[in-house]
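Exercise 7. Given the encoded structure of a 456-residue chain, write a plausible sequence.
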């Protein structure tokens, strides 16, 4: 048997390069997955070399390889009788610290690279939550936008008919993500229950009436804002009066906006894939109520919001040109590029916290870091969603529901703890590197569990 190399004799830069070359060769063309792995590897790979138990056991290399991937046909029928074929996926990424856990994305851009990046991020995020959650992600290239409720139901039933073979309340527990909200979770839960004849918490993000957790709809957005509060607290500052640019207008954006407003901040933008709206005075309660109806009931476009309230609407643009103190990208990956970041810095941004997964490109992150902008990576700042999913699982297991106040308090405590872990591993003189902190803190827990469980 080959003797494992002593990493202290190796050049970390060369080893990292060798490692990234290997990952590129194994995952050709998977742009988003390679981006996510590289972002973690630059912090974690040198760390494993300083801690030879991880390096010699190839723990990080193992983490980059999904435990298994399912890809399957999802046939369904439109209301006018046309046959449609979608492609469904579930990635079971890592089960070292708990059953696979992560959302389902329904969007026409869904492909293997995007789901692998999301599943990979979920390893570190779920570890940071302090709860026993492994990592997974799934979805389909189905586009729910413009589809009737019946079409969405037929798709969800067909998708679950295959997915049900691979998941279970102690195996793999999916939830929402882009395009998957409580409507889709409801249809999927109904189909699972019908097929298996068991009422168990196999999905999270359920409505309260059949086992959902209070505060789960709010959790990602609220959690992100709680995280920002912690970041500002270290600077002896708070959100009162801060001008905030939010992107997106879906689940995460809606509740990030709500919590910002509750804390006295001014939310000046919202967006969707068509463009963004600008309200220099900040959203008010009536506007927020309208947003909820527009997006969750009428399923309309954000341009209509601008029309209704006589606000400026910028089609085909993203909200990063406006003057703001805090920016919360809450729509999708790579929605803040280097140029956007330069513009935000020029306009005086102090904090950028990711509500979405990987919304900032590596160039944008570099700009923020160089300019000492407080930057929180999604795996830390958007972990509140999956954390309350973990709490939903706990409530389902004990067949009990906690009050809003109880769940909100647990969410707050978890976000505080995540912040603490980021500071512990990311403190660097006068600056905190939240990315490094989140990457290493997230890694250590999973890595130790993998070591304890042997070569599996
Ligand atoms: P929703 O489907 O509720 O909302 C998505 C929002 O992002 C919509 O406003 C949508 O606009 C916009 N969007 C989606 N794709 C694009 C695109 N390619 N370009 C521009 N805008 C786009 O999803 P969520 O709010 O749940 O998710 C938003 C982000 O947060 C995602 O990155 C998700 O992975 C992440 N996240 C979600 C969690 C959750 O609990 N839901 C937890 C942690 C992270 P349009 O309607 O025009 O497509
Ligand atoms: O990206 C994410 O963390 C989510 N979409 C939520 C996952 C979950 O299981 O609640």
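Solution.
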């Amino acid at each position: 048997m080959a003797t494992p190399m002593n990493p202290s004799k190796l050049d970390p830069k060369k080893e990292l390069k060798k490692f990234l070359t290997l990952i590129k060769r194994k995952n050709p063309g998977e742009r988003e997955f390679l981006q996510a792995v590289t972002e973690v590897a630059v912090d974690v790979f040198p760390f494993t070399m300083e801690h030879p138990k991880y390096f010699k056991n190839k723990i990080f290399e193992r983490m980059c390889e999904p435990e298994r991937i399912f890809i399957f046909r999802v046939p369904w029928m439109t209301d006018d009788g046309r046959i449609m074929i979608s492609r469904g996926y579930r990635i079971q990424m890592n089960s070292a610290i708990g059953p696979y856990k992560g959302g389902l994305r329904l969007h026409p851009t869904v492909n293997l690279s995007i789901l692998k990046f999301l599943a990979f991020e979920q390893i570190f995020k779920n570890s940071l939550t302090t709860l026993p959650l492994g990592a997974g992600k799934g979805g389909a290239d189905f586009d729910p936008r413009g589809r009737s409720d019946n079409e969405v139901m037929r798709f969800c039933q067909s998708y679950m008919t295959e997915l049900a073979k691979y998941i279970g309340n102690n195996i793999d527990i999916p939830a929402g993500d882009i395009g998957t909200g409580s409507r889709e979770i409801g249809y999927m839960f109904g189909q699972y229950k019908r097929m298996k004849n068991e009422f168990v918490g196999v999905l999270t993000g359920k409505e309260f009436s059949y086992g959902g957790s209070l505060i789960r709809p709010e959790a990602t957005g609220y959690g992100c804002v709680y995280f920002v509060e912690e970041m500002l607290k270290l600077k002896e500052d708070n959100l009162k009066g801060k001008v905030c640019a939010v992107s997106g207008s879906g689940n995460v954006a809606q509740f990030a906006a709500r919590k910002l407003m509750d804390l006295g901040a001014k939310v000046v933008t919202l967006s969707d894939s068509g463009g963004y709206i600008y309200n220099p005075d900040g959203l008010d309660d009536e506007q927020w109520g309208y947003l909820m109806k527009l997006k969750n009931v009428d399923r309309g476009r954000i341009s209509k919001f601008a029309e209704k309230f006589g606000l400026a609407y910028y089609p085909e643009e993203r909200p990063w040109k406006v003057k703001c103190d805090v920016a919360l990208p809450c729509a999708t990956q790579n929605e803040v590029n280097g140029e956007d970041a330069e513009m935000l810095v020029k306009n005086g941004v102090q904090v950028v916290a990711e509500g979405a997964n990987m919304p900032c490109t590596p160039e944008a992150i570099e700009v923020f870091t160089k300019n000492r902008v407080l930057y929180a990576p999604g795996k830390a700042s958007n972990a509140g969603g999956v954390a309350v999913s973990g709490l939903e699982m706990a409530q389902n297991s004990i067949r009990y529901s906690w009050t809003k106040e109880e769940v909100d308090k647990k969410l707050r405590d978890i976000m505080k703890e995540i912040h603490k872990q980021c500071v512990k591993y990311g403190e660097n003189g006068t600056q905190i590197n939240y990315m490094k902190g989140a990457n290493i803190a997230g890694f250590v827990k999973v890595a130790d569990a993998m070591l304890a469980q042997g070569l599996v």
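Remark. The mean pLDDT is 97. Students should compare their own answers with the one above.
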